[in-house]
Amino acid sequence: MADSLRRLVNIGTFSVLQEKLEKWLSDYYINTCDQNTARCCEIIELNAKVQGQLFKLLSLCAQEGGLYGGANIIKSRLLPWLGQNFFTSGGAVTADTSLSVLAEAAAKDRELSELQEMYEKSLDELDVELQKARTENQDLKDELQEAKLELNRSLRESTSDKMFTELEVNDLKRKLAAAEEENRLLRSKSGLLAEYQTEIRRLRDDIALLTARRDVLIKSPPDISTYERLERSSKLDDKLSDLNLYYRYVPGPTSPLSIDDTIQRIRQQNLVARFNDMFAQDRLTTMDTLRRYSDDLENNQRIVFSIMQEAFNVAKLEFRQFKMKTRANLAKTHFGPDTLEEAVQDYINRNTDLYDLPSMVSDVIRALNRNPKIFLPPDVSFAICQPLIREAVKLAWQMSALAHPLDIAVATDAELFDDTKYRRSYDSEYTAPLVNHHIWPALIQGVRTLVKGEAVTRRGASLGTPRRSRSPARATSPFRSVSPRSRSVSPSRFRSRSPSPLRRGLSPTRRSRLV
């Protein structure tokens, strides 16, 4: 009994019957009368088979209760429903056979429905692909037609352009031949003029140099630095005297003195970038050079910082003289609505290389020799740092030549640390408020800091350190080779060789006056 009931449940006949009823309902208005009748008979047969199986199960249940087992329930509930036309299908088919037939029929129906759905789906996909292929074909036809039209149009235009191009080429050839002939004549004339100007300039330089030497020899026996300054001044005067002949100020769209001037902005950006490159490259190269002769890191850092300071001092002094002479020469011929200062700045912008670099490098080296805070071994001079000195002087000159010049901040030892201008080095005492010494200067423009410098802070920082040794180049005065009379010690030279004010116990103000 239990096995028969389990098989009936596993087959799922009632679910198959429900599916057939739902499918019949969905296709009722589509099917014909014969199809609906056949579908109804199929459902009735399936229902009859199920009822036959249920009646067999009912008989088995009643037999398990004995002769009269379940009689009351059958009389009260089953008999009233039995009618005259009620029948059960059993026949010669056993229960297992009927159940297997039902299962096979349900499986076949499901397979047929799945196949039909797959077929309809594939038909829809084929229709979509066919429509897409037709659309692409039509697009290709349109593009081909447009390409044909474009090709025909380009052929017509190229034919007409070719005719005009030949005429233009012939005309340009004639103009080019005339321009080359004119250029050849101008070159020959300019070559002669350049030769004349070069010869005149050379003669003026020689005359000015001889005149300056004659005047100096008549007055007093000068030293070497005086000769250099006079020679440099005479050359600069001759260069500036040519302004009256060749230079005329032509006003531009913006004033050369404007902070928004194109030359000011572009050169300022390039100079700031060069200043950073010198800190990252030239400074380290010079430190490596100094490390071969001295292991004192602090002294080497002081030397590099002093080079930058003295380079800017010398460059600003020389540029101030150059600007004054330029203004004096332009004032003779300047006229127009624009100011004289605009004309001076325009000339400076056009001639930023009119400076004597070797003489300024020599001035920086002499200033380093006079600095009591730095030192080198006796057999070494500051000429070993000449690459950095040259680059620093050129940078300082170009920064001074701007309409709104750039400068380095004033710095002294034992000053209060200013974090708006400097950053501390890695070996600094970060709680110390005073600067022991500076590594690199801060770049400023007016009161605005453009690039921060670097400084070392220490507790108990002093105003300076005594000079440990003196190189022969600095110990021997250059004046001795000029005249025997220069061997006498002047008061100024005596004061410069006196002991350091710091060792004598003088105040910083008194020391700065003596130095």
TrEMBL record:
The keyword Cytoplasm applies. Residues 267-457 form the Mitochondria-eating protein C-terminal domain. Belongs to the MIEAP family. The keyword Coiled coil applies. The gene is LOC106061457. It comes from Biomphalaria glabrata (Bloodfluke planorb). Residues 458-515 are annotated as: Disordered. It comes from the Eukaryota. Residues 472-509 have a biased composition (Low complexity). InterPro entries: MIEAP, MIEAP_C. GO terms for cellular component: mitochondrial matrix; mitochondrial outer membrane. This is Mitochondria-eating protein. It is found in: Cytoplasm; Mitochondrion matrix; Mitochondrion outer membrane. GO terms for biological process: mitochondrial protein catabolic process; mitophagy by internal vacuole formation. Keywords: Coiled coil, Cytoplasm, Lipid-binding, Membrane, Mitochondrion, Mitochondrion outer membrane. One of its GO terms (molecular function) is lipid binding. Residues 105-213 form a coiled coil.
